[in-house]
Amino acid sequence: MSTRKVAGSRRAQRPAPAGVDPTPGDHSLASRATEDKPEGWGETPARRPAGTGENDERLKVDKPPHWG
Question: By the 8 A CB rule, do 47 and 53 touch?
Answer without folding.
Answer: no
